[in-house]
Every structure is written in structure tokens, then in C-alpha cells.
Design the sequence.
């Protein structure tokens, strides 16, 4: 597996730079989103803690983290959670649901950085 990554890195170093940039944008967006919802922003950088915070933000019990362990259903639940995050910020249209699912990194960044967006709760 390491040889595969090494080969990709040698052939396309720009691909890894692009991926790192998108990951950085996602982390900043999620941290700003957590801060806007009065949650600890540092949780956006800790892998399992961030899911617990998101579940709390949308009003789900912490036991629902187990849904991410069920194959196939975890994809459905992940998209459902993204839509519920948008709804917690007052974005309830079908267009918002599609945008948060397809462009989630940039949509979350927009929710976190936009002054007019407020966290309404679950």
C-alpha cells in the first residue's frame, strides 16, 4: 500500500497538495461552525469527539455514533447528519440539502464564516 502512495506522490505531487488544502479548509470550516454553535472549536480536530459534538448539535443521542459502524447505512446516516447540520442553521430547502451533501467542505465553511448565519439549534 505504501508503494502505491509513493508512486502516486511521485507521479502527481499536486494531487496531495490539493488534498491537503481541502482538508485544511474542512478543518477550519468545522472549527468555525463549532464555535458558532457554542461548542469547543478544538473538537473539530479530534476524530471521534467531533462526531459526538455534531450529534449534540443536531439533537441526537450520543449512542447514534454506532450507526457509523454499520456498512452501507453509515453512508446514508452521514448524509442525513449533514442535512441536519444545515437544518440546525435554518437551511431547510432541497437545494441546501443537495449543496451540503455534494459540496460539504465548502458549505460548512460558508456556514461557519458567514456573519448572517446563526445556529438555531436542533
Sequence:
Amino acid at each position: 500500500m505504501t508503494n502505491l502512495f509513493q508512486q502516486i506522490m511521485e507521479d502527481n505531487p499536486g494531487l496531495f497538495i490539493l488534498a491537503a488544502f481541502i482538508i485544511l479548509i474542512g478543518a477550519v470550516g468545522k472549527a468555525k461552525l463549532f464555535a458558532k454553535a457554542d461548542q469547543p472549536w478544538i473538537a473539530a480536530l479530534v476524530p471521534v469527539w467531533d462526531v459526538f459534538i455534531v450529534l449534540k448539535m443536531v439533537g441526537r443521542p450520543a449512542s447514534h455514533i454506532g450507526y457509523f459502524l454499520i456498512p452501507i447505512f453509515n453512508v446514508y446516516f452521514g448524509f442525513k447528519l449533514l442535512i441536519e447540520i444545515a437544518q440546525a442553521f435554518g437551511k431547510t430547502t432541497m437545494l441546501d440539502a443537495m449543496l451540503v451533501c455534494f459540496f460539504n467542505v465548502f458549505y460548512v465553511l460558508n456556514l461557519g464564516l458567514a456573519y448572517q448565519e446563526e445556529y438555531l439549534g436542533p
In short: Residues 13-36 form the longest helix (24 residues). The radius of gyration is 16 Å.
